[in-house]
Design brief:
single chain; alpha+beta; three-stranded antiparallel sheet; 12 strands; globular
Length: 336
């Protein structure tokens, strides 16, 4: 029997991080799929909503941008732009800044007269005039500048030879993959290690869909994994810092507060001028203790973890603790 809650009463007390969380499961099981839908479509959940806009700005804005700054200082390779992708980076700026201003007019403003632009972001006390296409008119490299304004990671795929190539991006919050390793690879090569997707033709179907996108079209999908602690940077480069936690969290009495469901909202956009495909990857973290505050989420996620095939659990890196997490979710216990 499905468990429900009084949505109106819960909305008044649940924090924003729960009310705006993009809970990804509609069923009690999960399999890989393209799960692509049009962007900018508001999604109602049991306790709130998400997805009405392209760029989500939330309570973690300053924290996550400061985290990105620290990561880039330690490892500048997290941002790479091959020379032929410079135009696509400016195309990204010309696409995202007006969208952010339109979605957040109380805190942001974008004005353009020819190539002369003015960008205002009151969250950063920023009032910047620059010339579209002129790298020297920005206080830093164009891709780097864009990464100071949005919480999303950015991946740019060039289209040539009837496929897509990862030729630029800024990725500080990778979930168990390496942006630096993948730069220069094709779309199919990047997704080669994912179990089941080749046999079920998911990658080839996704590639065909993306190649058919028209300039300006925007779609999105969700993906998920789990993370120990509120840590967005779980790249393979930093595995020694977070990998050992996977082996100990199942026995940790504080597991419900430390173990997080990580959901990525991935926007897929065919840039209007360059024709490059832009992937925006926005990552959200919610601990099991918060998920348990929504009974239907607790039940669904518990069953998803229990039923998930071993090869998929292994690839997601959750196989050592998924039973403990599932058992806790389905037990109905409260977090300590």
């Amino acid at each position: 029997m499905s468990i429900t809650i009084d949505k109106d009463s819960e909305l008044a007390v649940l924090p924003e991080r729960i009310r705006k969380f993009p809970f990804p499961f509609a069923n009690d099981f999960y399999r890989y799929s393209a799960n692509v839908e049009p962007a900018n479509k508001d999604v109602a959940t049991e306790v709130g909503n998400w997805g009405a806009g392209l760029i989500d700005i939330d309570e973690f804005y300053h924290e996550e941008l400061a985290d990105r700054e620290a990561i880039l200082k330690r490892d500048p390779s997290r941002m790479q732009v091959l020379p032929h992708m410079r135009t696509a980076v400016w195309d990204s700026i010309a696409t995202l800044l007006p969208s952010m201003a339109a979605e957040n007019p109380e805190i942001m403003s974008f004005q353009r007269d020819g190539d002369t632009c003015r960008w205002q972001n009151s969250l950063q006390s920023l009032d910047l005039e620059f010339t579209m296409g002129d790298d020297d008119s920005l206080p830093m490299e164009p891709m780097r500048f864009l990464g100071t304004q949005i919480q999303d990671d950015i991946v740019l795929l060039d289209v040539r030879e009837n496929t897509m190539w990862l030729d630029a991006g800024l990725v500080t919050f990778a979930a168990d993959w390496s942006f630096g390793f993948d730069v220069g690879m094709t779309f199919a090569e990047i997704h080669g290690p994912v179990p089941r997707v080749k046999e079920e033709n998911i990658v080839s179907r996704a590639e065909k869909f993306l190649l058919r996108l028209q300039p300006g079209e925007q779609f999105r999908r969700t993906n998920w994994t789990m993370t120990v602690g509120r840590r967005l940077d779980t790249s393979t480069e930093t595995y020694p810092e977070w990998g050992p936690d996977r082996g100990t969290i199942a026995d940790d009495p504080d597991m419900p507060n430390k173990l997080h469901l990580r959901v990525e909202v991935q926007h897929l956009i065919r840039l209007p001028h360059s024709g490059v495909l832009m992937f925006l990857i926005r990552s959200y973290l919610l601990p099991l203790s918060d998920i348990a505050k929504v009974p239907s989420w607790r039940e669904k996620f518990g069953h998803v973890l229990a039923e998930l095939p071993d090869d998929m659990a292994e690839y997601k890196g959750i196989i050592r603790y998924r039973k403990a997490a599932s058992d806790w979710l389905l037990s109905g216990k409260s977090a300590a």
